[in-house]
């Protein structure tokens, strides 16, 4: 499991007291996730998630935490950060930036149907609209600049065919980002990592989005593309499952009508979404950090998805 920084019961109890959550009855390591140290913490007042941020800094974190608060206050089901008496929601444990947020109910839907995709699509559009008046700004820290910095570091670990693919795709995405049509895409705060394991369902009903720690201001279309590449693919082949993708897009489009330019660039952004996670998975696999136990995700999954998106681009045509 990915506990990078062990937290003692005493340290958790001191933080819970500061947040007025009552006595801690249980502190349990969370056995998934690869970015942060996470614990479930049960107190007299309820169930929460305690996160020690391993990469994000005290300067970067207010953007994510206040975004979650902003969305929660507008009815989007996301974990709300807990404040101390002074209203502070960013804390410190073992010298690491730390937050305690509400634990969502439900569990992951790892084999989604069109019905699940439809709910994720609709809620994603509502999230984009609800975040429009969020006053803080921070770029997507796993966007194009990060891809350009990171590709050279992973290149030595690739074979010739993979090197060619990643360099060609990076050049394609740089050209796209510099194009006038790209500049017309609507933007705002996006989740940017809304995979199956970052959404909760209670039975077939969506109960929440979480893990906002890759959020940033970027195109709404990139968020849509990241979701399509995870929620609407056959995991064995990386192929898009048309029925799920159409259900996702139609539901999104009902909440916020996508523009003509968005429809046109969707195939290119789906390539961008695949490239982003291919790079980050290569980086996590080949340049790992210390962790008590760490299970890196398989990079070849996103290499396959990227090749598939290039060979078989998918176009969404809204119903007339
Ligand atoms: N607010 C929450 N409510 C309920 N469960 C949560 C919450 N936050 C995290 N979890 C649980 O903890 C697990 C790990 O958390 P998360 O996915 O955020 O890990 P991470 O290391 O921070 O990020 P990543 O997903 O990027 O690896 C989740 O899969 C989920 O089961
Ligand atoms: N969703 C990412 C993990 C980081 O959140 C992946 O599947 O590679």
TrEMBL record:
Keywords: Amino-acid biosynthesis, ATP-binding, Kinase, Nucleotide-binding, Threonine biosynthesis, Transferase. GO terms for molecular function: ATP binding; homoserine kinase activity. It holds the Pfam family APH. Pathway: Amino-acid biosynthesis; L-threonine biosynthesis; L-threonine from L-aspartate: step 4/5. GO terms for biological process: threonine biosynthetic process. Residues 27-256 form the Aminoglycoside phosphotransferase domain. Its EC number is 2.7.1.39. It catalyses: L-homoserine + ATP = O-phospho-L-homoserine + ADP + H(+). PANTHER family: AMINOGLYCOSIDE PHOSPHOTRANSFERASE DOMAIN-CONTAINING PROTEIN, AMINOGLYCOSIDE PHOSPHOTRANSFERASE DOMAIN-CONTAINING PROTEIN-RELATED. Belongs to the pseudomonas-type ThrB family. This is Homoserine kinase. It comes from Caldimonas brevitalea. The gene is thrB2.
């Amino acid at each position: 499991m990915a506990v990078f920084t062990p937290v003692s019961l005493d340290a958790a109890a001191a933080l819970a007291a500061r947040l007025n959550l009552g006595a801690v009855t249980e502190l349990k390591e969370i056995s998934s996730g690869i970015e942060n140290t996470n614990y479930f913490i049960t107190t007299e007042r309820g169930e929460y998630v305690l996160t020690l941020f391993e990469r994000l800094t005290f300067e970067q974190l207010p953007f994510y935490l206040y975004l979650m608060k902003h969305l929660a206050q507008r009815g989007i089901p996301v974990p709300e950060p807990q404040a101390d008496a002074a209203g502070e929601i960013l804390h410190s444990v073992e010298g690491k930036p730390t937050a305690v947020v509400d634990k969502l109910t439900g569990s992951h839907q790892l084999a989604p149907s069109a019905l699940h995709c439809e709910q994720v699509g609709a809620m994603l559009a509502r999230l984009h609209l609800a975040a429009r008046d969020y006053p803080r700004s921070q770029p997507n820290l796993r966007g194009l600049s990060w891809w350009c910095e990171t590709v050279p570091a992973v290149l030595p670990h690739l074979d010739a065919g993979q090197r060619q693919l990643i360099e060609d795709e990076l050049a394609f995405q740089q050209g796209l980002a510099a194009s006038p049509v790209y500049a017309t895409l609507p933007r705002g705060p996006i989740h940017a990592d809304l995979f199956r394991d970052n959404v909760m369902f209670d039975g077939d009903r969506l109960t929440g989005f979480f893990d906002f720690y890759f959020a940033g201001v970027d195109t709404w279309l990139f968020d849509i593309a990241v979701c399509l590449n995870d929620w609407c693919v056959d995991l064995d082949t990386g192929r898009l499952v048309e029925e799920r993708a159409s259900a996702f897009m139609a539901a999104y489009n009902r909440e916020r009508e996508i523009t003509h330019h968005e429809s046109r660039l969707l195939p290119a952004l789906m390539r961008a979404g695949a490239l982003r996670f291919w790079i980050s998975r290569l980086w996590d696999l080949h340049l790992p950090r210390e962790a008590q136990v760490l299970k890196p995700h398989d990079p070849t999954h996103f290499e396959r998805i990227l090749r598939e998106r290039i060979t078989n681009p998918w176009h969404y045509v809204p119903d007339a």
